[in-house]
Amino acid sequence: xxxxxxxxxxxxxxxxxxxxxxxxxxxxxxxxxxxxxxxxxxxxxxxxxxxxxxxxxxxxxxxxxxxxxxxxxxxxxxxxxxxxxxxxxxxxxxxxxxxxxxxxxxxxxxxxxxxxxxxxxxxxxxxxxxxxxxxxxxxxxxxxxxxxxxxxxxxxxxxxxxxxxxxxxxxxxxxxxxxxxxxxxxxxxxxxxxxxxxxxxxxxxxxxxxxxxxxxxxxxxxxxxxxxxxxxxxxxxxxxxxxxxxxxxxxx
Amino acid sequence: xxxxxxxxxxxxxxxxxxxxxxxxxxxxxxxxxxxxxxxxxxxxxxxxxxxxxxxxxxxxxxxxxxxxxxxxxxxxxxxxxxxxxxxxxxxxxxxxxxxxxxxxxxxxxxxxxxxxxxxxxxxxxxxxxxxxxxxxxxxxxxxxxxxxxxxxxxxxxxxxxxxxxxxxxxxxxxxxxxxxxxxxxxxxxxxxxxxxxxxxxxxxxxxxxxxxxxxxxxxxxxxxxxxxxxxxxxxxxxxxxxxxxxxxxxxxxxxxxxxxx
Lengths: 252, 261
What we know:
The complex is a heterodimer of chains A (252) and B (261).
Chain A: H1 2-17, H2 19-39, H3 41-46, H4 52-81, H5 84-89, H6 95-124, H7 134-158, H8 163-178, H9 191-197, H10 201-213, H11 225-248
Chain B: E1 2-11, E2 14-24, E3 29-33, H1 40-47, E4 55-60, H2 69-75, E5 76-79, H3 91-101, H4 106-119, H5 135-148, E6 153-157, H6 165-182, E7 185-189, H7 193-199, E8 202-207, E9 210-215, H8 217-224, H9 229-237, H10 248-260
């Protein structure tokens, strides 16, 4: 337990010490929120879909958690580069504990980022429909964080250097974001996009947050919270297993 | 304390370490010398469970690191060739994390961290982030960390690379002091032959993955008929320059340094 705790704490300390990174990483979601939320809002409204800012906020929160957790999982690459990874790999502790501590730390950081952007959303005018459902929304946020922190660890263990990073960004993380329905409703898309989006774990996370924060009546919920939770839990277990496996195979 | 029998490691066609055998006694300082790419670091990686040997056996304090990696890892400390500190954390935090990873009881860890930081003259800087340290300070901190869990064996892979003579002398004096006071077995590699001559009780020279000579520095000088260990080393390994292909990690470090300035 001590091992998991100290590595979890390390992720938090690193996060709290890089203020510049903290602000920079909130910049992008805020940009999406302001430009799309206020820019596309009137069009969305005219199309009869209601308030776009309300719709968009869970998507932007999901996006923040996605990016933050994947990046902290891939912080493994930096630790490999600056050598610290070796210090943990020769330590007399099972690697699964090391992987667990890092991944939970990354997920925690991602949740904190998600909460910060939630505050920004509320300032911008976002209001949860039912306050009693907010804890459920938080639960979905945590699940998104765990899924993608574990995914980041899996990828980070498999990659040897930074060159692969750009590839992962362009061909994995961005598609996951754009196909998740963070920016547009999944209820009215064509069959091809429908099939693609239903393979995206983030789609279930954002769907879950929407059903918790906007209420089921909004007509923008596609899967429903029960299915969302089940899929996310399954994917989280899958990625944690994959992450633990690929982490145990690292040779330096 | 360390026993190695017919150790071998090949990467595909390339044989990095070929049928290496040696023994290091308790409390001994043993220098493992060889040109670039001779197989020093590969041997250390196998000894420290970071690589699996292709053939042969290893015993560390009677434990087989392949069969019992966790117990074997507790018995040694290691200072890697390249830095392995977390620059965002302070000196003390780096040591505290190490103490937890090696299951050092809290009170004992606190006392030992204080005495080691004082010995290595870093106590005044204990709350400074490691990225603000000079190369020599980082090295000293890493060596202090290697001793933290009172290991039976300490591996030092080129610990003095890039340090000025003052830091090098001081570093070896401190290592020797701990070697004597705690009876730690020290296994080191270095490119500075004068250091090996001065510090090590026994020396082995490896070239092209094979051990070409071993014994006390005096015996090696005698057998090659040379005055200094450096001349003996050149007599044993020839004077052709070895090229080492850069590994991905080194290439990445270079890349990172480029972007950090």
